[in-house]
């Protein structure tokens, strides 16, 4: 009997252990794999949110990625003379630490969109609304990531097959040619333009999401980078005709730079990056893909770069004297300064003291301009009435994508806190690109008409076609008057200078050098408030027109051939030997020969 009982006990134990094995064999939902995830509409939408989130990282649009491209423009300079100096001087070496971030974060977008595209064909019914919306967004976001990589780094690997490079043996790829990268961008955007709904048809769904209008806008940019002006003009006319949704210029230029739902994602916006408004969101600053969490601040640090150090910024970036004086050259028909100056640069202007708040031609809902910055009234008799970008180096402070003019707070802490959405493409860009394409195709009168729509918004005198004897003269007006005043201190000027070939022409390189003149740390003597009867020396803001005789220097004076692009980071080259020697910046190779061999031309400087 005892032996029988022992057998029964052993069998019971075996059965119990087997049962435990069955109960433990479950999938932990918190450790899902790529095989198990992404097989339904809801999961693919979650993956899309993860893609959009990457647009708000340091290497994309939250700070470094955005600022590095802006620094290649001739209308801003590195007033802190620190972090961004190599990017601003256009001579960065491959060990420059910030080169890693735009590459890293844009390829993270590529990876996540590739995952979605690897799943959508089997997870959703082809042709359904959900299929078209999810696939179209993934294609657009991938194209935008490759667009950023192309304008930053010239060349990069093209990774499209998620399953292929998920195998570590296939992870590393060589760089594609520049034209192959642009071909892929055009292919993705072409499909996205068909799949995505317009902002009108998308309704609430389209608020903050990519639409066919977003894809069409970036298609124009891709085509124009390779001088395909005839094809770009067709897309531009379709946008203006409403094929991809209804867009218009906002009556008030400032509505493109205010914070809040009343202004963001407005009728002028083809594509903008969403940031949480001031006072909302979490508290944890999320700079990279490695520490994403639910308590992220979801703000950006552009304000920390662009705004005045007197109010808490890092004081990294300042506007050029050329841009400031360009605004001062002509006034609106109501006798006031061009209102775009107010929203672009922070300077004291006497006329702002006389503003009554009543409607004007440029501000039909009431002129909001004043000499108040971050709730501080600027007084002309104060030495600091012109707000310094950097307290040590001086420089004209930038207003765009900051709350300097919105007066939401008195000062701010640096970091990912500003909630002003970054508008990456506006309808005014459509109009001025249409003008450029029309001019390239010989339609000067038509081109002037597009320009005048943009000028009329701010009540500047309308241009006359007969004032431009040829396309060279009108191009000069577009490139060095209309575009810098409309888009000054915004993302994109650097890419424009490359596609126009300005780095490959001695006259244009000299012109960019003159535009970028700056004065470093100008000093003035003031009474010392802490020591009555004594004085002290302080830096101030110089706004006069600069020449080689009165400027400290120009960031374009240090340009090294090939460095209109940024080098590929040396660690990436070391980790992936298939990248070879990198790009033209890594090897300091002159790109002018390749530019002209493609049949591209550089329009001569017209005074």
From TrEMBL:
Keyword Magnesium in annotation: no
Protein name, per record: Putative outer membrane starch-binding protein
SUPFAM superfamilies: TPR-like (SSF48452)
Cell location: Cell outer membrane
UniProt keyword Transport, yes or no: no
Pfam family of the protein (one): SusD_RagB
Alphabetically ordered keywords of this record: Cell outer membrane, Membrane, Signal
């Amino acid at each position: 009997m005892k032996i029988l009982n022992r057998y029964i006990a052993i069998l019971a134990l075996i059965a119990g252990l087997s049962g435990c094995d069955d109960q433990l064999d479950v999938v932990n939902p918190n450790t899902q794999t790529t095989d198990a995830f992404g097989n339904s509409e809801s999961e693919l939408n979650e993956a899309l949110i993860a893609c959009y989130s990457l647009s708000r990282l340091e290497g994309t649009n939250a700070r470094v990625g955005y600022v590095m491209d802006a620094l290649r423009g001739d209308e801003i300079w590195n007033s802190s003379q620190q972090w961004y100096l190599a990017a601003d001087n256009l001579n960065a070496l491959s060990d420059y630490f910030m080169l890693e971030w735009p590459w890293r974060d844009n390829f993270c977008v590529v990876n996540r969109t590739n995952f979605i595209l690897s799943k959508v064909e089997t997870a959703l019914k082809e042709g359904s609304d959900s299929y078209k919306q999810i696939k179209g967004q993934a294609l657009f976001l991938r194209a935008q990531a490759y667009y950023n990589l192309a304008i930053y780094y010239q060349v990069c690997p093209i990774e499209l097959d998620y399953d292929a490079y998920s195998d570590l043996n296939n992870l590393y790829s060589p760089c594609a040619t520049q034209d192959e990268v642009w071909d892929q961008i055009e292919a993705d955007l072409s499909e996205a333009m068909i799949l995505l709904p317009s902002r009108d048809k998308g309704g609430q769904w389209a608020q903050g999401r990519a639409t066919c209008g977003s894809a069409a806008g970036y298609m124009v940019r891709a085509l124009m980078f390779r001088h395909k002006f005839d094809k770009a003009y067709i897309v531009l006319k379709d946008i203006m005709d409403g094929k991809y949704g209804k867009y218009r210029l906002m009556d008030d230029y400032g509505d493109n730079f205010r914070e809040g739902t009343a202004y963001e994602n407005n009728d002028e916006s083809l594509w903008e990056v969403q940031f949480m408004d001031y006072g909302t969101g979490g508290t944890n600053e999320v700079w990279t893909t490695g520490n994403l969490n639910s308590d992220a601040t979801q703000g950006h640090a552009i304000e920390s770069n662009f705004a005045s150090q007197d109010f808490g910024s890092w004081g990294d970036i300042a506007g050029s004297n050329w841009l400031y004086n360009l605004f001062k050259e002509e006034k609106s028909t109501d006798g006031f300064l061009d209102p775009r100056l107010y929203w672009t640069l922070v300077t004291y202007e006497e006329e702002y003291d006389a503003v009554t708040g009543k409607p004007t031609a440029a501000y039909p809902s009431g002129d909001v301009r004043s000499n108040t910055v971050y709730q501080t009234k600027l007084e002309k008799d104060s030495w600091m009435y012109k707000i310094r970008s950097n307290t040590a180096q001086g420089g004209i402070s930038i207003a765009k994508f900051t709350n300097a003019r919105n007066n939401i707070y008195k000062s701010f802490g640096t970091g990912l806190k500003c909630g002003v959405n970054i508008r990456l493409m506006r309808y005014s860009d459509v109009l001025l690109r249409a003008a450029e394409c029309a001019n390239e195709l010989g339609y000067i009168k038509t081109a002037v008409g597009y320009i005048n729509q943009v000028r009329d918004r701010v009540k500047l005198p309308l241009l006359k076609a007969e004032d431009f004897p040829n396309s060279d003269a009108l191009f000069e007006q577009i490139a060095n008057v209309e575009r810098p005043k409309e888009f000054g201190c915004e993302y994109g000027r650097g890419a424009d200078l490359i596609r126009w070939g300005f780095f490959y022409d001695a006259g244009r390189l000299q012109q960019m050098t003159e535009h970028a003149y700056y004065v470093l740390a100008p000093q003035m003597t003031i009474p010392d408030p802490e020591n009555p009867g004594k004085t002290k020396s302080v830096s101030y803001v110089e706004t006069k027109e600069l020449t080689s005789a009165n400027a400290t220097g120009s960031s374009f004076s240090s340009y090294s051939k090939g460095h209109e692009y940024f080098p590929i980071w040396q660690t990436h080259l070391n980790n992936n030997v298939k990248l070879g020697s990198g790009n033209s910046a890594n090897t300091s190779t002159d790109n002018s020969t390749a530019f002209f061999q493609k049949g591209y031309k550089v329009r001569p400087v017209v005074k």
